[in-house]
Each structure stands twice: as structure tokens, then as C-alpha cells.
Amino acid sequence: MQVTPEHNEKVAKLTFASVFPHYIVKVEKKGRTLAELYEVITWLTGFDQKTIHELIDKKVTFKTFFEKATVNPNAGLIKGVICGYRIEDIDNTLTQQVRYLDKLVDELAKGKKMEKILRTS
User: Fold this and answer.
1) Pick the CATH number of 5-110 from 3.90.1150.10, 3.30.460.80, 3.30.70.1050, 1.10.8.290
2) Are 108 and 36 in contact (CB under 8 A)?
């Protein structure tokens, strides 16, 4: 699928707070923990748990969320298809970063080993 400017705008305006509960349900339903979810988010963004909750409380958009993040330099190693989009082919940086997060959460829910998810081995 091709990412459109309208899609990029929609992603930018989405609040992290509106998506985070879905991440929790997805990983816990598959037997993974909230602590593992925080670990994945922290690896990608550099945010600690306290900061994640401050951003949730402020209802920041994904645009603001990733503007404040220090994206892991190994994030470019995240490849594959998520939500019908090939991550490495997305040319909008913000949309690509959101899809990185989606992919990491998906891999966590699918039972991948943490060192594989975090691109450490």
C-alpha cells in the first residue's frame, strides 16, 4: 500500500494516549507483560515509564510524541510489513516512526524474543 499525505496527517494528529490502551490489550492478550511493553517503547523512544505517562496525561499527538523522543539509532533495522505498509518504504519520517512502534508491539505480541525485538542480536 502507498502512504498518502492524508494518511500521514491522520497519523500525526492521532494521540498516543488513544493508542496506548490498545497496545496493552494486544500484548497482554498474548501473554506478554506491561513491563515488556514499556521496555519496547523505551528502547525506541528513550522515554522512561514516568515520561510515557506524562505524555499520555497530556494527550500528546504522535507528532509531538516523536518530536520529544530520541529515536534509537538501530530503529532503521526494523523492517517488514505492518498494517499493510512496508516500513522501509515509508518516506514520511513520522509515519515511519509510528509504524516502527506498531511493528515492535506486534513482534512482542507474537512472542518474539526481546533481544530480537530490540535488534540487539
Assistant:
1) 1.10.8.290
2) yes
pLDDT in tens, 21-68: 999 999 999 999 999 999 999 999 999 999 999 999 999 999 999 999
Residues in the chain: 121
Cβ neighbours of 106 (radius 10 Å): 20
Is the pTM for the entire model greater than 0.85?
Answer: yes
DSSP state of 4: P
Assess contact for 81 and 105: CB atoms under 8 A.
Answer: no
Closest Cα to residue 115, out of 40, 3, 37, 16? 40
8: its cell numbers: 500521514
Pairing of strands 85-86, 81-82: antiparallel
* Residue ranges of E strands in the chain: 81-82, 85-86
